[in-house]
């Protein structure tokens, strides 16, 4: 679903980006420019700040969709890993024992050796299972085992598994598969370069209950928020306080995605300079504007996530504006 907009339409519909100011005392020290967009599953841009056609790599926010073949192939059911196994396949976890254990269960139940994982071993840690993408890689390998696909090349873009993932994304976005640009992510797996609104459309689908596998993935993620990132991290803390109403998934380099469950609405955020602190500040700012959480929950998250140090604070300037027809 390539979003098209001629110059006159762009100028008429262009909304200024959101700015996040880091203030030291009363002085602005740094400024982050942030694009944000809200879409429905049909691809309609409902609200925006900045450019909805801003192109960026989706990074780890792609994980829930990379997990679809794990379910659609029957692998997750065959190896009986339940909601926790599905959740860890979508996670960017912190390497805690309970998280690494769930990734290990996928491999154990599939009779696959841990050293088959091709994600890196994290610095100062002893096992690839502690890598934040180990669940995704374990699910990749389990799917390959079920489908009799080769292990050695499971991260190559022309591997049957990666081709199936690309096909799924192209179907969800209603666009030709050959138009999707794939590059290597830090963990070795392919990631995709998409327009920001296209990323929001994916998350609108994730919350719409129209796709059986995505509904299962959604349920697993919101039911097991502690596995998705970890205590004190944004995705876990937000979903815990949302009590099943919101799904949240971060990606590197300033990517943050949120969906409102049951409504088929997705939000995608991109910080131009990739700053993590700015994406969380804007995410909470957007949630507040959309009234998707109680003021008390938002205040708790701001205190837990946005506290930097004495004398420093983040201020968000700007808001989402409705798209004009």
Describe the structure.
This protein has 325 residues and is an alpha+beta fold. The protein has a single domain, classed as Beta-lactamase, CATH 3.40.710. The chain is built from 14 helices and eleven strands. It has helices at 7-13, 63-66, 68-72, 75-78, 82-89, 97-110, 134-147, 160-173, 196-206, 212-223, 225-228, 234-242, 276-290, 295-305, and strands spanning 18-24, 27-40, 45-49, 55-57, 181-184, 190-195, 246-251, 255-260, 265-271, 312-317, 321-322. Strands 1, 2, 3, 7, 8, 9, 10 and 11 form an eight-stranded antiparallel β-sheet that branches. It has a three-stranded antiparallel β-sheet with strand order 4-6-5. Strand 5 and strand 6 form a beta hairpin. Helix 5 packs across helix 6 (97-110) and helix 6 (97-110) runs parallel beside helix 7 (134-147). It is globular and about 60 Å long. The chain starts with 6 loop residues before the first helix and ends with a strand. Residues 4-8 have low confidence and may be disordered.
What's the topology here?
Elements: H1 7-13, E1 18-24, E2 27-40, E3 45-49, E4 55-57, H2 63-66, H3 68-72, H4 75-78, H5 82-89, H6 97-110, H7 134-147, H8 160-173, E5 181-184, E6 190-195, H9 196-206, H10 212-223, H11 225-228, H12 234-242, E7 246-251, E8 255-260, E9 265-271, H13 276-290, H14 295-305, E10 312-317, E11 321-322
Antiparallel strand pairs: 1-2, 1-10, 2-3, 2-9, 3-11, 4-6, 5-6, 7-8, 8-9
Helix pairs in contact: 5-6, 5-7, 5-10, 6-7, 13-14
